[in-house]
Design goal:
about 700 residues, alpha+beta, eight-stranded mixed β-sheet, four-stranded antiparallel β-sheet, 11 helices
């Protein structure tokens, strides 16, 4: 007869068994390819000297994979958003001190340039609120930057004067005249994002506290505050800027349309405006005559969203679908080097794959086999594609792809983020839903799990809900659990993307229906394995996954413990207080006029059924799922005597982002599961 396995400790030296070592692992992000295709730049985050925050630096990676990566920048504030100019210089943003700039105690990111032949980086552009984002024209090198600007004009001196007056007067109030008022983790206003055309940046003379003299406000009326202005692209010659712009969709709703701005005159015209869709993600063809973009059909009470790619003529705005019969959701499109095809990304069967589709039609061709890809870069000579690749058994790493070959398995280019090994193995499993649908899952098994020593099981439910488990996550890393002996099940239930529109429809407006039964089917299938201990299980999720964790708690007592992070509890209250209420009302309806879905699917209505111990986790700066959801859930659990704990982060948002808080997050979850899943008693984390 098999015996339950104790919690396992990973062999000495594994970073996944030591949370301090885990948070210190280098983390690769961003990818930029130079115009000549000879240089790649990545961002690499590591702990700072005090080990209190992650610090990002830029590294160069050899596109051929022959030379080791080398570090390019070393400032204490760090560097991010690398982008190459045609002259070979590397542009980036950094909050490094700018020589000659007024020190007001609040460092703001400036635009910096690292010369092509090496040497010291120099600041090339500043603004009173800093540079939030930028883009560069592929051929001309013209630059457009985004920066928050106070109402009343974009002149930097006037902008700074208005900021100083508010500060000196002790005024923090903001007057809103439209919706929304918050976004993600910050209050909106009174400053709003503007886009500035900077032209070609000077090759010498660094900025010394004053901004570059050639600076034209392309958005004098300011952009809507939601951040849509970051979605922009310059034509190769720098003459046109394509960008998505928020427009009203009903009294309090928003959607995006695509506009073109002449960078010489500032004149703007609408290119694509579809009242039934969001339009975004535009990229120019190599000759600048065509734009490819994403059309996301707006969801309704009856139908989820659907996605396709549009080809748009820049001259007259005529458009046609490029992927009309493709039952996946394309994103991040880019033209091939010769303009005859478009590369894009899409979730597909538990992967986030690279696809190619010809402009002359035909079915998209999947270029990658496994893995999740991002930051796709196209070599201008057509010889290669570059991207960051991750999977559940490997963090982000730069790779080189053949633009034509299908189902590739590229090797990682030498980089400082490569891991030596993992404390377990990754498996792919399937189950059958209550309605006969195929339910896909990933399963992480710890070392040593077997029929003689079965592992306790942790069900992790993904957020979204229109997402899927397909890529590495530092915030939700199953290998930390595997290093302590847990098997981790990562299912893709109804509403998950990458399995077709009908699979999404199965859960649309019925979150407590097929998504729940799919999860239980996945757990049932996992528990049939001899290397899984079905008597010791837990469930966990964040955001939509937190909603599902709450729903699971009201529907079954099969789990010994449930962890719910940044979760939805009272759907009516959530919909009215989240940062984009109109988005959710499309699916759920107006709670006052059509309360049916709220009443049937809101976990708080079934609180009396909860018997399972619960750990509630929430950040106070979470405006996507406001803290009120956790406060109400916590009170409802306490007054019913449900064994529960509340891990509260006053300064974190929807995600836990700082190293110290990240360690405490993992420590508390592990302690809670040790108590209730392993039965070893509660041990409070030392710093709590």
């Amino acid at each position: 007869m098999s015996q339950p396995a104790p919690a396992r400790a990973e062999p000495e030296g594994s970073p996944f068994a030591d949370l301090a070592a885990f948070v210190a692992l280098p983390r690769v992000s961003s990818l930029a390819l130079s115009s000549d295709g000879r240089r790649l730049a990545i961002s690499v985050a590591t702990l700072d000297a005090e080990k209190k925050k992650w610090q990002s630096a830029l590294w160069e990676v050899d596109p051929c994979g022959e030379r080791p990566a080398r570090r390019l920048t070393r400032s204490a504030p760090g560097e991010s958003s690398p982008m190459w100019a045609p002259d070979g210089s590397l542009l980036f943003t950094s909050a490094r001190p700018v020589p000659g700039a007024k020190d007001d105690g609040e460092p703001k990111p400036a635009l910096w340039s690292l010369p092509a032949d090496g040497g010291e980086a120099r600041p090339v552009l500043t603004r009173p609120a800093g540079i939030s984002f930028f883009t560069v024209a592929a051929e001309s090198g013209d630059v457009v930057v985004g920066s928050a600007t106070m109402p009343g004009g974009s002149d930097p001196e006037a902008d700074q004067e208005r900021r100083t007056k508010r500060k000196d007067a002790g005024v923090s109030a903001v007057l809103h005249e439209g919706y929304p008022v918050r976004f993600w983790d910050h209050d909106l206003g009174p400053a709003a994002p503007h886009l500035f055309w900077a032209g070609r940046l000077p090759a010498d003379e660094p900025a010394t506290g004053a901004e570059h003299p050639v600076l034209q406000d392309l958005t004098p009326d300011a952009l809507p505050p939601s951040g849509a202005g970051e979605d922009m692209a310059l034509s190769p010659d720098g003459s046109l800027l394509a960008r998505s712009v928020d427009v009203a969709d009903g009294p309090a709703g928003r959607r995006t349309r695509l506009v073109l701005t002449d960078t010489a005159t500032g004149d703007t015209r609408v290119l694509v405006d579809d009242p039934l869709a969001e339009i975004y993600g535009a990229r120019f063809s190599p000759d600048g005559a065509t734009v490819v973009c994403v059309r996301e059909a707006l969801s309704t009470y009856d139908e989820p969203p659907d996605y396709t790619l549009l080809l748009v003529d820049v001259a007259d705005g005529t458009a046609r679908e490029l992927t009309p019969d493709f039952d996946r959701w394309p994103s991040a499109p880019q033209f091939s080097a010769d303009g005859s095809a478009v590369f894009f990304l899409a979730d597909d069967n538990g992967r986030h794959a690279v696809f190619r589709v010809g402009l002359d039609g035909g079915d998209p061709v999947r270029l990658t086999a496994d893995g999740a890809y991002s930051h796709l870069q196209v070599a201008r000579d057509g010889s290669a594609l570059y991207a960051l690749r991750s999977a559940y058994d490997s963090p982000d790493a730069p790779v080189r792809l053949d633009p034509e070959a299908s189902h590739q398995e590229p090797a990682a280019l030498p980089n400082p983020g490569t891991l030596d090994g993992l404390p377990g193995t990754l498996h792919e499993v399937e189950a059958v839903g209550a309605d006969g649908a195929r339910v896909h899952s990933w399963l992480v098994l710890p070392e040593g799990a077997s029929a003689e020593s079965p592992a306790p099981l942790l069900l992790w439910i993904h957020g979204g809900p229109l997402m899927s488990w397909n890529s590495w996550s530092w915030r939700w890393c199953p290998w930390v659990m595997a290093a302590r002996g847990y098997a981790v099940l990562l299912p893709n239930p109804a509403l998950s993307q990458g399995f077709g529109l009908d699979f999404v429809r199965r859960g649309w407006g019925e979150w407590g229906g097929a998504p729940y039964t799919d999860l239980m089917a996945a757990v049932d299938a996992a528990e049939q394995r001899p290397d899984i201990d079905a008597t010791r299980t837990a469930a966990m999720g964040g955001s939509f996954g937190g909603y599902m964790a709450n729903w699971v708690a009201t529907q079954t007592d099969r789990f010994r413990a449930i962890v719910t992070h940044a979760s939805l509890w009272d759907l009516d209250a959530f919909t009215g207080t989240t940062d984009a209420a109109y988005y959710w009302e499309k699916e759920w309806g107006d709670p006052l006029r059509d309360p049916k879905r709220y009443e049937q699917n809101s976990p708080h209505r079934f609180a009396d059924a909860i018997r399972t111990p619960m750990l509630v986790i929430h950040g106070d700066k979470d405006y996507r799922v406001p803290i009120g959801e956790a406060l109400r859930l916590w009170y409802d659990l306490q007054k019913r005597g449900v064994p529960s704990k509340f891990l509260y982060f006053p300064d974190e948002n929807h995600w836990v982002l700082t190293p110290g808080n990240s360690m405490v997050w993992y420590e508390t979850i592990l302690a809670f599961m040790t108590e209730h899943v392993l039965g070893e008693g509660w041990q409070r984390p030392e710093l709590l």
